[in-house]
Write a structure and sequence with these properties.
The protein is mainly alpha-helical. The protein has helices at 2-12, 41-65, 67-95, and strands at residues 25-26, 29-30. The chain is built from 3 helices and 2 strands; from the N terminus they run H-E-E-H-H. Helix 2 (41-65) packs antiparallel against helix 3. The protein is flat and about 60 Å long. The chain starts with a helix and ends in a 6-residue tail after the last helix.
Length: 101
């Protein structure tokens, strides 16, 4: 089924070849200079912290759906999970990872 869907998409998709389509750009603005430039490490730290806490927050959704059936043991488990998240945030804050320099 996957191969069939890919074949159908390849047959009916519009195809036009243009040099500009192969160029990397962001928001429609053509790039200036090389694309191999260095970024501040702060951007990466913010991205990693965002991903870490975003993914951790996604793990709370299944718990919220079945919270009534878990009882007190489930509540204690999720409080422990949240405590570990708060410790991670406090550690990042103490190390200065949340400061924009």
């Amino acid at each position: 089924m996957v191969a069939g869907a890919l074949a159908i998409a390849a047959l009916i998709a519009p195809a036009s070849f243009n040099v500009q389509k192969g160029e990397p750009y962001e928001c429609g603005i053509p790039t200036r200079g090389t694309s191999w430039m260095q970024f501040k490490v702060g951007y990466y730290l913010y991205a990693i912290l965002f991903l870490m806490f975003d993914v951790e927050a996604v793990f709370l959704f299944p718990w919220a759906v079945i919270v009534k059936s878990l009882g007190v043991v489930g509540l204690i488990n999720v409080l422990f999970f949240a405590f570990i998240l708060i410790l991670g945030l406090a550690y990042a804050w103490k190390k200065g990872a949340l400061e924009w320099k």
